[in-house]
Amino acid sequence: MKPCPESPDPRAVLQDTDLCVKCGLCLPHCPTYRATRDEGDSPRGRITLMQGLMAGQLEDDAVVRRHLDGCLSCGACTAVCPSRVPFGRLMDAARAVLTPPRSHGRISGHLLRHAGTRRAAAGVLRVAQRTGMMQVAGVLGSSRRPGLARDARLLPRLGPAPPRPGGRAGAAGQGAAAARTVALFTGCTGESLDAAAVRAALAVLQRLGWRVTVPREQVCCGALDQHAGRPGAAADLARRNRRAFAASEGPILSLNSGCRAHLRDYAACDDQGADIAARVTGLCTLLQGVDLGPLRLQDDPLRVAMHTPCTLRHVLGEHDALEALLRRLPGVEVLPLPENELCCGSAGTHMLENPAMADRLLAPKLEAVEALAPDVLVTANVGCAVHFAAGLKARRSKVPVLGPAELLAQRMGVQSFPIQR
Ligand code: SF4
Ligand code: SF4
């Protein structure tokens, strides 16, 4: 079992670098090593750098930091390592104590922790997008600040905000499934980047007759803080979520594979954490064995390209559940993207901090989408969806990017959310 995000001593975690026997079997599976062919960008090389830093033989200089910060935390190396080196944990610990993060962006930290501020920011963004201010930011940014142009390009057009946490959605009393209750985890993106997916999931569950609760005090899962070397901030968020979901009932539905993977890590914290980890599920798993008849899905032909996020494939092992759900949908032809086991470059905040590598890793996937010419692209992670949508937009592709819930809602004929991100 992985340690609780409140793990008290990252230096103890780093002792596990000794598990690496330097066999190199992970190298062909590492997206950054495949891109640069630089040992420092490989799992084995990064472990060697960590060992050098721990032994005081290396300094935390720009070169070391570039190699370590460049890790996508994609989990591909852990999945193939015969020595079971827990690379993700090592990377988190290294960022916490060996290459401490630069100052935490005060604005982003506040946004992760305070739902009211996030809602206000999302409202401002909606207005900016509708009035054309975002295009202005993109144009200005392209000449004065390339980063601003990229940020403006990456942000999807936000749909209407979903119902606020604290309420109940869905209908009870509609047949055999009526007694089923689901608690919805919306995290830090549910009111903004993932608002369309939340609304779509509510529409799906409502038509299935399930009762949905959205616990009011929930916050960001903490994954972004944990993977950026801020375990204290991640632990605070984990504690608040454990309290928020303590009184909830039924499975905890987390639409994003990245959040879900981190919620599972609460297991080692305490009894409440173990309870959350046991209950947390994704939509594809939740719907396994469930009669989809009540959804009254359209059956006209639809070619669906499928991307499997790293957290879904390497961490949760749920990529088969996504494909199985898609294959159950009438009229749908599933087209898995080639090399789906390789990261698209999104990787949490990696696409913002390492845009050149993020775009390089995405390029062959965009070419594959263009070659397949699907009607839609489906992915199970909001970060991947934003990254793909921005890349497709830059190529003037009209292929919309959807999550599984959005695809289901679209096939139900529910159009209360934007199809194009
Ligand atoms: S991380 Fe695992 S697969 Fe990679 S070199 Fe070390 S022992 Fe071998
Ligand atoms: S987590 Fe991914 S990017 Fe990082 S070393 Fe492992 S395979 Fe490479």
From TrEMBL:
Pfam families from the UniProt entry: CCG (PF02754), Fer4_8 (PF13183)
CC cofactor: [4Fe-4S] cluster
Keywords: 4Fe-4S, Electron transport, Iron, Iron-sulfur, Metal-binding, Repeat, Transport
Record bears the keyword Lipid biosynthesis: no
Start and end residues of each 4Fe-4S ferredoxin-type domain: 10-41, 62-93
EC number: 1.1.99.14
Root EC class: oxidoreductase
Catalytic activity as recorded in UniProt: glycolate + A = glyoxylate + AH2; (R)-lactate + A = pyruvate + AH2
A molecular function (GO) term: glycolate dehydrogenase activity
Domain of life: Bacteria
Cofactor binding annotation: Binds 2 [4Fe-4S] clusters.
Chain's role: Component of a complex that catalyzes the oxidation of glycolate to glyoxylate.
Entry protein name: Glycolate oxidase iron-sulfur subunit
Organism, scientific name: Ectothiorhodospira mobilis
